[in-house]
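<goal> How does this chain fold?
<sample>
Here is the protein in question

***
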Amino acid sequence: MSQSVCIISTRTPYCGQFAREALDAVLVCASYDIPAAFLLMGDGVFQLLKGQDSEHIPRKNLSAMLQALPLYGIETIHVDETSLFERGLAASQLCQPVTVLSQGELPTFLRQHSRVLNF
């Protein structure tokens, strides 16, 4: 097993600091050349919805951070297919291309990483 980290983000984009902390963790791993994967599950899939505007709430928009991921070597964002389905969303509604993982693929995907951090 390679020494890699999977960061799972399960919260909505503006519910506390969880989503931002998950993104920070991915960026820190990448900046230290630690192989990292970013997986959105549950309400975390809402982080990638197009057209978000945080102007009227005391939170920064996460879109710029999400768009910066490829600059740090995070080329793929993984999304749980069941989470999309349960929320009536499709990958085409998201602001970035994603790799959709089925329920059957998730265990294998997670076993590929030596550490899993859940936010």
In short: The longest strand covers residues 5-9.
